[in-house]
Each structure stands twice: as structure tokens, then as C-alpha cells.
Amino acid sequence: MRSHAIAAIPADGIGPEVISAGLRVLAALAQRLGDVRFDVETFGWGSDHYRKHGVMMPADGLATLKTFDAIYFGAVGAPDVPDHVTLWGLRLPICQGFDQYANVRPTRILPGITPPLRHCGPGDLDWVIVRENSEGEYSGHGGRAHKGLPEEVGTEVAIFTRVGVTRIMRYAFGLARSRPRKLLTVVTKSNAQRHGMVMWDEIAAEVAQEFPDVAWDKMLVDAMTVRMTLKPRSLDTIVATNLHADILSDLAGALAGSLGVAPTANIDPQRRFPSMFEPIHGSAFDITGKGIANPVASFWTAAQMLEHLGEPEAAARLMRAIERVTGAGILTPDLGGTATTRDVTEAVVDAIHSSN
Ligand code: NAI
Ligand code: MG
């Protein structure tokens, strides 16, 4: 029996709804496969913890998480706590503390989903966005001077290091190589931002030499939004900075039908620390507690987690079950359906048990 220790952090809003759905599906997979076990411990960190204790997680939170094989994360964000507090109090310390420098975001149009683009069906949009996840525009550098005075200054400094850019570029080229089309698009803004972004372009060209079998091209981020919308078939693997990829992957999620299906993995490729798996979406206060949150993103990221844990068969089985359910039109309201979180979850559980 193989066993994997998973730390679940459902956190805020619809986080607990989609993570409990995901844990139910993981339990069904373990039952179906019979030779794998998931030892899950759930942590009640997030905005409730903040309201009670003034911090989003305990001071020894990272030390606790370090002993797990993977982290399964919901979402942070609450109407009454500032977003920079929730984000910098829980999600970013985990990503940065565990040096999860590769943020991997697959996007595909699942069967049964009508995407917003005309003439774009399943198979026409199949991307993986690789987001640099440890530095760039989200490195936390900067500050404010003369606070509250008319001459107040705020700076937000983007940090790009040769080590950081080289390692994400290697990861992206390697991922592109592992996919059938072996095609990578490197996104920057090296016309207007002439230091760090030009360095990105130079390092991309250097790393490309190590991957002669991968075809690659460059795009400016603004033009990239146009290409994603008008020529989705021309793209496969995409690499971009922390900020650019954050924005592009929300667009990608929308083009695939809903943010409610978009997953993401925060990976430490060197496996020194546990990696973290989460839906891309946030805590969605507008639908919290209504039982209609789409659990597909949390299922898909669970499939990414299974891949990372060395359980490709379980991952593939889970993806087939998800596609069977979306293909059968069992969809939550964000995808135009009438199914509840529970309906979708039970249908995926049934598909896991009934498929061979
Ligand atoms: P959001 O992703 O929470 O919601 C955007 C829209 O998408 C809402 O209309 C929501 O109902 C819908 N939506 C999102 N996930 C859905 C799902 N699974 N099923 C059905 N519909 C879904 O983004 P928003 O509203 O900008 O932010 C809300 C809070 O979440 C904020 O506090 C924000 O800071 C936080 N946030 C946290 C993230 C994280 O923990 N990784 C990521 C994005 C936002
Ligand atoms: Mg985002």
C-alpha cells in the first residue's frame, strides 16, 4: 500500500466547499484503486484564524506543513480582512517559504463546456501556462514614504534574478518538451521594461540552446492577450512572469469556460519541500454557502497533485471521470448548468467507481 500525507487548508469562502468535495473524490479514488492511501490532515487556517488570533496561520505553520508530501489548498480572502493581509499571511508565505517557484496552470476546454469563443471547441485550446512564482513583481520589494502626506511615495519593485529566470525557463522548456507539440511561447514586456524583461529574453535564448527539439517564440504580454483570444490553436506551453502569468491565466480560465474549472500547482521541482495544489479562483463571497461552487478546479488540481505524488494512473482516472461528468452536462451554474457542488461531486465519485 502506497501512502501520501496531505495537508488540507480549505481556508475561506468557497474554499471549504470545494476542498471537502475534492477530499471526497480522493477517498473514492483510494477505495477504487485499493493500493494507495491518502492520510489527510485538515488545518483551520485562514481569515477565521486571523479574526481569533490576529494571524492567518500559526508561527510554526511552515514547520508543520514541511512534514507532508503535498498541500491541498482552497482559497483565501474575506470581505472584512484586507486582501494583502490574507494573501501575504497564508498563501504567499507557503509558496515563497517552500520555494515553489513553478506555478503550473493547465487550460483545456473540457467536454460538454461551451466556451465563450465561437469556433473554439474541445481540442482547439490546450495550453499550460508556467508562471514564475518566487520573484518578479510579487517579490514584496518596495515601500511607502511620507505616509499619508501629500508627497507620499509608493514603490513596488520587480526583482528578476538570473538564477530565478534560468530555473523557470528550464522548467518551461522541459514541460514543453514533454508535450506532443513541443512548442513554447515566452511572454515579456521587453519593449517598455528594458532591464529585467530584456534579461528574460536573453536567458530564454540561452536556455533554448539546451532544448533544440523545442520550438519557441516570443510575445509581448499585451499582444499575447490578442493571440490567446484570436489564435488559441497557435499556443501550447507558455512561460511568463509572476504578474503577467497571473493575469493571462485568468483570461485562459475564462476562455476555457469558467474560472471554476481552472486548476494550478505551485511546485518545487527539486522536491525539497511539499508542493501546493489549488484552484485558481478565489474565495468567491458572492456564492459562498449556496452549494453551487464548481468543484471541477479543485478536482483537476487534485489530479495535478496525484501526478506530482507519482500516481499517474489515479490522476488519469480522475481526469477521465471529470470529463465524463462534464460531457454528460452535469454542470454548475457558472457553466450554464443547474447542478450543485454535491451533484457534480457525486457524479464524479460514481464515474470513478464505474469506469475500468
Ligand atoms: P473569485 O475567483 O473569488 O471570484 C470571481 C468570480 O468567479 C465570482 O463571480 C465567483 O462567484 C466566480 N467563481 C470563482 N470560483 C468559482 C467556482 N469554483 N464556481 C463558480 N463560480 C466561481 O475572485 P474575486 O471575486 O476577485 O475575489 C474574491 C476574494 O478571493 C478576494 O478576497 C481575493 O483576494 C481572493 N482571491 C484569492 C485567491 C487565492 O486564494 N488563490 C485567488 C483570487 C482571489
Ligand atoms: Mg490571480
From TrEMBL:
InterPro entries: ICDH/IPMDH, IsoCit/isopropylmalate_DH_CS, IsoPropMal-DH-like_dom, TTC_DH. PROSITE patterns: IDH_IMDH. Its cofactor is Mg(2+); K(+); Mn(2+). It catalyses: (R)-malate + NAD(+) = pyruvate + CO2 + NADH; (2R,3R)-tartrate + NAD(+) = 2-hydroxy-3-oxosuccinate + NADH + H(+); (2R,3R)-tartrate + H(+) = (R)-glycerate + CO2; tartrate + NAD(+) = 2-hydroxy-3-oxosuccinate + NADH + H(+). Keywords: Lyase, Manganese, Metal-binding, NAD, Oxidoreductase. The keyword Transport does not apply. PANTHER family: D-MALATE DEHYDROGENASE [DECARBOXYLATING] (PTHR43275:SF1). Has multiple catalytic activities. Apart from catalyzing the oxidation of (+)-tartrate to oxaloglycolate, also converts meso-tartrate to D-glycerate and catalyzes the oxidative decarboxylation of D-malate to pyruvate. Belongs to the isocitrate and isopropylmalate dehydrogenases family. This is D-malate dehydrogenase [decarboxylating]. It comes from Labrys wisconsinensis.
